[in-house]
């Protein structure tokens, strides 16, 4: 069966940047599954696959459609149980939700304050208007002012990464010697920033940066194939 | 084989308060293992079991001695594999380390600023002197000044609990429908504060408070048997 992953892009269809799509991209490679990528801008998402979802990633696997990264990971785990596990058992699946919850509430809001204007700038024109309006409404301020003090926000982010740093300083991945979906969850956030924004915030010698490099190198450099924003 | 759990207490041997000992107490109940408790004050720990460890918990299981809560959980999981799992598989074991890392760096430092003077006050005399000296050296200030502004620190703690809150608001435990060692890891911190300090900081309707109540009720109210500090 053919697998299609619908991913979010801006003007350059070769630069998918959604953190949640990156989680699934690595999950598919983890499972050793071939897939084709189909890309869409923000305003094209509601028209994908008959309007099945308001968000990407959407995965089509033969006749099956699944939306949202965690649900897709669970689908892949259940459907392809004989391939390398994304969760390492039921306990790993449950605690991956905690990693997601932490990542969503610690890393993502901070990275948004670094990258949101840069993300706007790489979008196609109809997406730019949609993105600016929806985000400025959510943030209660302009994109420009939302990122204006980003340099001052680096240190608090680096401090908030300590629970992750302490783990990846002593072992290669959150999963241990090898990565699990939990690694891809956190990787997705950093890759989102890397692909969409040239703003640098991770010191090269930070154990988190070294872990991120290990993630970028996985599966023949799947993550590294898209160059960092310049 | 007889199992002994060495736990930390103050003047009242019926009120073990170490977060790490509570993790193991619930882990033993989770596994359905009988055990006896042996108690020690801070300054008695180096003399336990021939000086095998500088920290409690220490577990003796027949001829085997294991120290430190996570190592004990791993030992129990390996030694009693046919009893309910503490990790739910290898992935769960790995990600429990992340939960521990988060709990140690988010919850514990905040709770120490609430409870450290109250902890001092429940200790026996030689322990009080050791505790004050070692902690004041570590904190760089007196115990009294370390907790002086604790009321102002409640709101930042409550905010930092959001990754946990989001999970336990939608399911009973971090482990899902039932608890895993990851739940006991976080429970230990809150139980430490509950047993040692009357300072209230969790609103009763907070999903974290409701989760904590569920943990207190586990195994015939193992955690609730020790009344809250008053």
Structural write-up:
The structure is a homodimer of 230-residue chains. With 230 residues, chain A is of the alpha+beta class. In chain A, strands 2-1-3-4 form a 4-stranded mixed sheet, with helices on one face. In chain A, helix 1 links the parallel strand 1 and strand 2. Chains A and B meet through helix 3 and helix 7 of A and helix 3 and helix 7 of B.
In short:
Chain A has 230 residues and is α+β, with helices and mostly antiparallel strands. Chain A is built from nine helices and four strands.
Q: What does the overall shape of chain A look like? A: globular
- In oligomeric terms, what are we looking at? homodimer
Give the biggest beta sheet of chain A. 4 strands, mixed
Order of helices and strands of chain A: EHEEEHHHHHHHH
Indicate the radius of gyration of chain A in whole angstroms. 17 Å
| N→C terminal distance of chain A | 38 Å
The CATH topology label of the largest domain in chain A is: Glutathione S-transferase Yfyf (Class Pi), Chain A, domain 2
Number of helices of chain A: 9
Structural class of chain A: alpha+beta
GO biological process, one term (chains A, B): L-phenylalanine catabolic process
GO molecular function (chains A, B): glutathione transferase activity; maleylacetoacetate isomerase activity
Organism (chains A, B): Jiella pacifica
InterPro entries (chains A, B): Glutathione-S-Trfase_C_sf, Glutathione_S-Trfase_N, GST_UstS-like_C, Thioredoxin-like_sf
